[in-house]
Each structure stands twice: as C-alpha cells, then as structure tokens.
Amino acid sequence: MSKISKILIILLFSTNIYAQNIINYFENVSYAKNYISELRSPQTKIEIGYLNKLDNNYYNKEIKNRPFIESHLGYDLNILSFSNKKYNFALSLPGGAVTLTDLFEEKTAPVINTDYWFGTQIKFITYPFKKNKYLKNISANFIPIFHESTHLGDEFMLHGYNEIPDFKRINVSYQAWHFALTLNDPDTLKGNILSFKAGLQNLWTVKDGYYFTDSLEVKGANIPKSTKTFEFNFIINYQRKNGVLANKKWVNIFSAEAKNNIQFNYNENISDSRAWNFNIYFGWIYKKSNKPFRNIGFFIRHYQGTNPHGQFRNNGNFKFTAFSISLI
To answer: 44, 123, 162, 256: most buried by Cβ count inside 10 Å?
Structure first.
C-alpha cells in the first residue's frame, strides 16, 4: 500500500469519526431539561399569587388579603456536550435562587426568605425505541453534588429576636445528590408528548441532617437534628403542539410534580415526618427555539403541601395559587 493510500484512509477514517461524534463547548442542549413543575430547578420565573398561611412568627397579619411575589432566578451553564447516533450527554453547572417577598405590605414590603442552590449535573439521552408508538427515548439527570442554603429576611429576624420570646433562626444548609430518569423526554420531538419522570435524592452527610443551629439564634433552645433525609418525586408532563388551543408556536403544557419530602420538626422528642407535596402548572409556552432560556411561558400554578421556603419547612398544609411568567 502506497503512502498516499494510507494518508487517504487515515483522512477518511478521521472524517467518519468526526461525523459520528460531535463535541461542543459552552452550548446549551435541548434534552434533560427541568419541567416547569419541578420545585427546585434552574428556571427563571416570577409568580404573583395568594397563600393561605406563612409562619406564626410573621408580624404582618392578614396575609390572605394581599398577593405575594415568588421570584426564581436560575441558570444552567453547559460546559461540554457529546453526541453520536446512539446517545448524547452533557456536563453543566446548574443553580438558582428563590425569593418570597411580601411586596404589597404597606410599611416595608419585606423579603421573607431566600433559598440558594448550586451544583454539578450530567445529562444523558438515548433513543432505543425505534418502532415503538408510545415510547420514544430515555433521558437521565444526575446531580452528583449540590448545595442549598436558606436565609430569612432581615426584618423578619429582627422582629423575631426583639419581640418573640421563643423565636428560632434555623440554618437550613446541606450537600446532597439527585438522580432522575425520564421516559419520553420532549427534546426535539414533534407532536404531542406525554412524559414521565421519577427522581430520588439523599444527603451526602446523613448524620448532619438538613440544618444546624446557633445557640444565640435559637435563644438557648435544644433543637434536634433532622432524622429523615431520603426524598423522591414523580412528574407527569403533557406537551401539546396539536389540537384545540395549541400549535407549534403556542405549546400547551400541563405539568404536575408529586414529591415526598421531609417535613422538619424543631421540637424535642418529636421526629421529622414525611409529607406529599403537589406542584401543578397549566398554561402555554410561546416557543421560538428548542434551546433553553429562549422561550416565554404563561401559567397558572397551584402548590399544596409543606411550606417549601427555608426554615418554614416545618409547616404543613401550605397553599399557594399564582400566575407565573417563565423564561424556559
């Protein structure tokens, strides 16, 4: 074999490898994205709505008579992605912050609480169902580690320290992992797509629990550590591009998350309990692109279950009904 023939074979082989395997850096992917109903996600949205209760220590009363603002600021920085004919995967850095504000309170419009989280994530998708009418793909989200910390608003804390004898400031702060599988990830699929997602998570430091306390911040009270740590969730997401009040530009979405999480308890001799929480969205996305953060959504949201904000996660039967505008 001549040298020229060898060179041509090498070039042909290299071209074939390049054609089948594509690596991109700092470019968003369309698969393994979070659904609108997921309570913790890197989505950006603002929601205005009414809640039924907050916390017995909150000094502003009649909260049922005015709306509250829940703002979500999120990001998902894609580091690299790899794709070929069989599967795709990507590595990203997700995170976000959720702030609850009593904006329409007349005196100070206080911030009630802010939750922060950030982590690392591996996304994966494959299409093994070539001839199946109902199953199209399987995707996975694996967050090997993420950190969350929560912070009460200054006015809330100052009033508590000065006016409430048994006021407690609980520092919710922990490191955890999360894994989820999805059947029928919307990705770039056409038509109406019914997706199902199941996930689970646990702490890396189980013995430390979800929170810790400072003796000054709890006024000397003995606060037991959280004893339960494992959580899991299920999501149903129905995306309609065909049918009544739906098309390729205005995509109709029904999305619901059922999450079994830990309801904290800060009293001695009473352990944490498990509780089901439901987060439901219905609305439309004005879709311009399959890439994340380039589409806008309009939704009605209803949440019911454990209060999801910061140290208020010891309160059950919390309800929040809101109008949501989302960047998706």
So the answer is: 123
Domain that holds residue 164: 3-327
Nearest Cα neighbor of 112 from 147, 70, 174 is: 70
The average pLDDT across 184-207 equals 94
Q: What is the pLDDT of residue 13?
A: 45
- Per-residue pLDDT at 292: 67
Q: CA-CA distance, 63 to 106, in Å (whole number)?
A: 12
* Residue 68 pLDDT exceeds 80: yes
Q: Is the pLDDT of residue 8 over 80?
A: no
Tell me the two tokens of residue 230.
């494992």
Between 290 and 83, residue with greater pLDDT: 83
- Centroid of chain to Cα 140: 15
Strand-pair category, 318-327 with 296-305: antiparallel
> Which residues have a Cβ under 8 Å from the Cβ of 207 and sit 6 or more positions away?
none
CA 293 to chain centre: 15
CA distance between the termini of the chain: 56
* Domain count within the chain: 1
The Cα 239–Cα 303 span in angstroms is: 20
Are the beta carbons of 232 and 199 closer than 8 angstroms? yes
pLDDT band at 201 (very low <50, low <70, confident <90, very high): very high
- CATH value at residue 213: 2.40.230
Residue 77 is predicted with a pLDDT of 95
